[in-house]
Amino acid sequence: MLLNFITENYLSFKERAELDLTASSSKKDADNVHVHKKYRILKSSAIYGANASGKSNFLKAISFMKSMVTKQINPNSDIDVDNFKLSSETENLASIFEVTFLIKDYDFNGKISDVVFRYGFELDRKKIHREWLFARFSSQESKLFTREGNLISNGEKFKEGSLVYKALGDINEKSLFLPLIFTLKGKNAPISDLTIKWFSKLNDITSIRDYNLNGITLSLLDKKIITKEALNEAFKLADLSIDGFSIEENEVDKSSEKQGGLFRRELNKLVNIKLNTSHPKYDENKNLVDNINFDFEKYESDGTKKFFAIIGPILHALKEGLILIQDEIDSKLHPSLAQAIISLFNSKANSKGAQLIFTTHNIDLMDLLRKEQIYFVDKNHYGESDLYSLDDFNVRNDVLFSKNYYLGKFGAVPAIGNLESLIVKDQ
Asked: Do residues 57 and 13 lie in contact, with contact meaning Cβ atoms separated by under 8 Å?
């Protein structure tokens, strides 16, 4: 589970920005907290702020860190990182990323215990400047490795790192050491394997609002990760006037894949996977006489498409205890449906400790959350974004957070001018 994420000098965040998902001892909204032995971890976190304040940039920082760890990096190309460019102080400085996370019930040399890892790196477009990995196998944090430039210092408990570094002698200045160990040793490097697998559970589903809306959910269904019965039940509970759905598969020409949609390759053929939804048909007396199939992409509303797009990843996350990141989670959804999704993560049904980190403009969602679950992003006149928590304010737990935010007591609201002046000037 994610405990903490930090970034600095990335996009609009010039200064250090920190998201803390550890919960206080408050008993308010106790179901919003996943309790595991001595750990109390928030199941969700919401980020509010005006348009262009930098909310999306913070989520991009998390996704960038994952991509650096899990994807192959071309050593001959620049690292695709963007630092804060609106200040001469930072334009030539490296960007910083650090994550702290909990692995529950880990078998370390035959001893079962919880382990907290802290991993981070500092880089610019040309090279990795610093990299580090620490772990708390007990109450005290131990160094696994630290890196300065291309020099690696491995700790006593990180033999896999020592073996790889000794064998290589040197590493590419654009390659991270941790994923390099995993690539070379795989499961024979248990700590690296464990940390890389944790990053694979970090899923940014923001992009599904922009293309192939049904692709991810259909893919999860095709791989039998989620069931058709669960999706049918989700449609009914969301009150979308859909009786069910069916999957239509057709063999197509290989050039069709370039046109978008979901496809499956089977030996020498390409199969297009298409979604149809079922709707009841009635006679003049309102008696049910048939069910009609609709082409999902052609006939369903944008809100229905958005719900289908995210419900698959949501069900998968709750089943496996994954971390979901979603920008503008309430976009195209009715407020009641958005509230139901947030409440689902913050419920006893979320027993695996799945986490949802999202941005939103839906003020009503605030009143479903604890103080430490609510963050704000504000941007100053110098283009610098600042991330801060509602928990930083002296606010009682029993007040309506939404009302106070609307009144501007927490900042992070737009200063909108008189739009009528646009019409006056134009006349």
From this structure: yes
Give the tokens for residue 199.
Answer: 């990053």
CA-to-CA distance for 11 and 175, rounded, in angstroms? Answer: 21
Answer yes or no: are the C-beta atoms of 344 and 313 closer than 8 Å.
Answer: no
* Cross-strand bridge partners of residue 98: 6, 120
260 with 211: CB under 8 angstroms?
yes
Closest listed residue to residue 369, CA positions, set 405, 320, 334: 405
User: Among candidates 100, 19, 3, which has minimal Cα distance to 58?
Assistant: 19
**What is the token pair recorded at 126?**
């040309």
Q: What is the DSSP letter of 80?
A: -
pLDDT of residue 407: 84
Pairing of strands 39-42, 33-36: antiparallel
∠ at Cα 318 (119, 103), nearest 5°? Answer: 30
- Torsion on CA atoms 299, 305, 311, 312, rounded to nearest 10: 80
The CATH topology of domain 1-201+321-427 is Rossmann fold (3.40.50)
- What span, in angstroms and rounded, lies between the C-alpha atoms of 207 and 214? 12
Domain coordinates in residue numbering, the chain = 1-201+321-427, 213-309
Separation of alpha carbons 150 and 145, rounded Å:
12
The two structure tokens encoding residue 107: 């078998």
d(CA 119, CA 177): 11
Does residue 18 sit in helix, strand or coil? strand
Give 218's Cβ-side CA count (13 Å radius). Answer: 23
Strand partners, 291: 280
In this structure, the strands spanning 374-379 and 44-49 are: parallel
Tell me how far the alpha carbon of residue 83 is from its chain's centroid.
Answer: 21
Q: Which two tokens stand for residue 228?
A: 């058709």
3-state percent helix, strand, coil for the chain, nearest multiple of 5: 35, 30, 35
Query: 3-class secondary structure for 222-245?
Result: HCCCCCHHHHHHHHHHCCCCCCEE
Which two structure tokens, joined as six digits, stand for 366?
């605030």
Tell me the one-letter amino acid at 382. Answer: Y
Q: Which pLDDT tens digit goes with each residue over 192-212?
A: 999 999 999 999 988 765 555
Rounded to whole angstroms, how far apart are CA atoms 153 and 192? 16
Predicted TM-score of the model (pTM): 0.91
Low-confidence stretches of the chain (pLDDT < 50) are none
Residue 212's pLDDT is: 59
- Tell me how many helices (H) and strands (E) the chain has: 11, 19
